[in-house]
User: Fold Probable alpha-L-glutamate ligase from Tropicibacter naphthalenivorans.
Amino acid sequence: MTDTPDVPADMIRFGWEEWVSLPDLGLPALRAKVDTGARTSALHAFDIETFGPANAPRVRFTVHPVPGREDLIIPCSARIVDRRNVTSSNGETESRYVIASTLRVGDESWRIELTLTDRSSMASRMLLGREALKDHINIVATDRFQQPRLSYDVYSDARVRQAAPNRALRIAVMSREDNYSTRRLVEEGEKRGHTVEVIDTTRCYMAINALSPEVHYDGKRLPRYDAVIPRIGASITSYGTAVIRQFETIGTFCVNGSDGITASRDKLHAHQLMARHKIGMPNTAFAASPKDTDSLMRLVGTAPMIVKLLESTQGKGVVLAETKKAAQSVIDAFRGLKANFLVQDFVKEAAGEDIRCLVVGGKVVAAMKRTGAEGDFRSNLHRGGSATVARITREERETALRAAKAFRLNLAGVDLLRSESGPKVLEVNSSPGLEGIETATHKNIAEKLYEHIEAKVRPTPVRRKITPED
Assistant:
């Protein structure tokens, strides 16, 4: 380093330590050591993990920007521009990933390259090497903080956190099917710069222990995901929710939790949950004994009525009994198969139509009206029904939101019937398909879901005030 007493007017004075920021990485305040003996700048990083395609690799890492504050963690991501062997002052050589970022000092900013390495033993979380120093920078080796000082307090400012750049995420879609919904989730996530991996739920297995619970897949431990989007098929609900519980144990953000998925799949549980939250639904009854058939039907009302298997999906296992005798026959047949079922009042005024409200993050983002195929009381699109965009009332919107909240689902398809006494919830779907509603409403539902995920996985707010040491 050199100390030049006569500094030209256009020279920027740097001390041997300065406050800087890396806005591209969401790091608004860092104290950096200036070292012209080092070629490349270095940033303290840990949990370094590569991801993305081989032709455009990226790296994820986390930073403790404040020395001594291990509880303050800032997650970052960037494109990898190189990988270099760097020899430290003690003669040790380390292979490091190199990224590029904007460096801001006072009113000046320019692009620099940074290597990622563990500097936890260093007093400065960042080192500025000679490649990052512009030609018109003068180093004052005997002093520090020649440029405006910053403060670590910015990390507890909500406005700063909201302005942080959207970092690239690693997301798992738990699905066994290559269908429209799965493809859209992958397509939209990658368009937003994230890495999205489709994981077959049944090929996952779990290491269950108190200290380091893990999820393994095809013989290897799965990487650390920022979020998991469950698309659990009805036939594997039990095992699928066990895998989701494992991710929850690890601390991964799951769009829909295991409890909500389990409750939505068991129709009896679902109706009991909605009754507890005073959510409108068709009159429903359930009984196990064949001696209670007549009493069961009286609880619902008069024919016609619906007899529904507890674990039916896409309209399968749902029968309309138009007379009391027909209802008795269907109930006897289901009991003969030792199948669990419930009986519901048939809402005649719905006329074979229902409303699917798509709820994402506590908001109804789209709604469509589904009409059953000719002669079919079921409106499921998988059974030949048709869909058009729907305008819903305030009461219908509030009912859909209350239903999704009761199941604690961040993504839910809430199916409503329009009755004379107000909206009635038929079902809450924890893995709603995207094709029908995106086609009918021309809305980008996958985009709304990713906006919610990105908001949920931001760094945890820091509440304790930090006082920097000079």
In short: Residues 460-467 have pLDDT under 50 and may be disordered.
